[in-house]
Design goal:
Layout lengths: L2 H8 L9 E2 L13 H29 L1 H7 L1 H20 L2 H4 L10 E4 L2 H7 L2 E8 L10 H5 L6 E8 L7 E5 L7 H7 L2 H6 L3 E5 L17 H4 L2 H25 L5 E6 L1 H9 L8 E5 L5 H5 L5 H12 L3 H8 L17 E5 L7 H10 L4 E5 L9 H16 L2
Parallel strand pairs: 5-6, 5-7, 7-8, 9-10
Antiparallel strand pairs: 1-10, 2-3, 3-4, 4-6
Length: about 400
């Protein structure tokens, strides 16, 4: 198969302005870019700022109800207790303690996906679901988290070959970006499938059909319950994905690679520090310090600052607690040669400096950049080919 022509057919059409691998000193300086690359980076950054403001406005509206809790002294004391709990766990830097493994295998229900999914994949596609065995890491929140009935049904879509099982590429979507069809096209998954991979698309907590009833948008629950709610959502994202890995092992899959975009990149990097069954990990435009990233997201940053001020929350405590779910707090399990990070120089939702922080923490592993933003991945076939070369060394004999 001609990989160039196949990828050209499979990916979403974007300008063809090439990126490159980072050098030993990291991402390129502006002076290192060609005039065409600088033009793409600058224009895509401006477009990203508009998108960031829209998303930040949604997040601000989501977090407004938590201001009322900050005004109530008992409630603010409870939230500080929660912060102390996660800060204490983070200080241990022990992924087994922070993210306990599932203790029972999932009872997975599988049914055929719709005809459009099979048309896109050009193969057999099944929708998976099972009841989550997750119990909140913080005992004080277990009753609350158990009440999220829709969220506690795990969902995924599985593209399988008839003569499988095959090496499997698992994909985790970004915030608000859960539709399987969109992710299948965006990540050129039909091309990976035709290249011999089985594919698994995992739905994060509170997204898609896991969103609670009356949620105003997919992903709402991630930020609607304060910091402790975000911490538990991340803990559940890791737990439920590990249950899916249990399922893949049960059906005979022995090689699993993991990639994800944005929030999915953050989650995939974290999972790679927790589960030793991941052979390779490729975070794509990842966030690794979300609390610092949100500092630049107007107007959400103003709501967060006001909430912390009303509650009398110290910034040092917040910073310590947020390390609980940060991949920067734990060592990656896959070997250095099995880690690849992808970043967009014009990205203003997950600024490239975030990916560079992860790159430094991951011992200067493979690092590829493209001259686009968070959603316009300019010259995407270039990094898809990079992914393919990277994975082929150990995913297939």
């Amino acid at each position: 198969m001609d990989s160039n022509s196949s990828l050209a057919e499979a990916h979403l059409p974007v300008p063809d302005v090439p990126g490159a691998d980072a050098t030993a000193r990291g991402l390129p300086r502006r002076a290192d870019l060609t005039r065409q690359q600088r033009l793409i980076v600058d224009t895509s950054a401006v477009a990203d700022l508009a998108l960031r403001t829209s998303i930040a406005s949604l997040l601000a509206a989501t977090m407004v109800p938590t201001l009322a809790g900050a005004l109530r002294s008992p409630q603010s004391r409870v939230e500080r207790d929660h912060l102390d709990f996660y800060a204490g766990l983070a200080a241990e830097r022990d992924p087994a303690l922070s993210f306990p493994a599932p203790t029972e295998p999932p009872r997975v229900s599988s049914r055929p996906a719709n005809a459009i999914a099979e048309l896109v994949a050009r193969g057999h596609v099944r929708n998976l679901r099972f009841n989550s065995s997750f119990s909140a890491v913080n005992p004080a929140l277990r009753e609350q988290c158990a009440c999220y009935r829709r969220n506690n049904v795990v969902r995924a879509q599985h593209w399988r070959h008839e003569n499988g099982p095959r090496p499997t590429l698992c994909v985790i979507h970004g915030f608000m970006g859960s539709p399987y069809l969109f992710n299948g096209l965006f990540f050129s998954l039909p091309w990976f499938y035709r290249s011999g991979y089985d594919v698994l698309l995992y739905t994060l907590p509170f997204h898609g059909r896991r969103a609670e009833k009356y949620s105003p948008f997919s992903g709402y629950g991630y930020f609607a319950h304060g910091f402790s709610g975000f911490a538990e959502a991340m803990a559940q994202a890791v737990h439920d994905f590990r249950s899916l890995v249990d399922y893949l092992e049960f059906i005979g899959v022995d090689r699993i690679a993991l990639t994800g975009m944005s929030l999915g990149g953050y989650t995939s990097a974290l999972i790679a520090s927790v589960d030793d069954r991941i052979q390779a990990v490729i975070p794509n435009v990842p966030v690794v310090t979300p609390e610092r990233t949100v500092d630049e997201w107007f107007p959400a940053n103003k709501v967060v600052a006001l909430r912390d001020r009303l509650a009398g929350t110290e910034r040092e405590l917040v910073d310590a607690a947020t390390m609980y779910s940060s991949p920067l707090n734990y060592r990656p399990i896959p070997a250095k040669g099995r880690r690849l990070i992808i970043a967009g120089l014009g990205d203003r939702l997950a600024p490239p400096e975030q990916a560079e922080l992860l790159w430094r923490h991951w011992d200067h592993c493979a690092f590829h950049w493209f001259p686009g933003n968070h959603v316009l991945h300019v010259s995407q076939p270039d990094y898809l080919r990079r992914m393919t070369r990277f994975l082929s060394e150990f995913m297939f004999d």
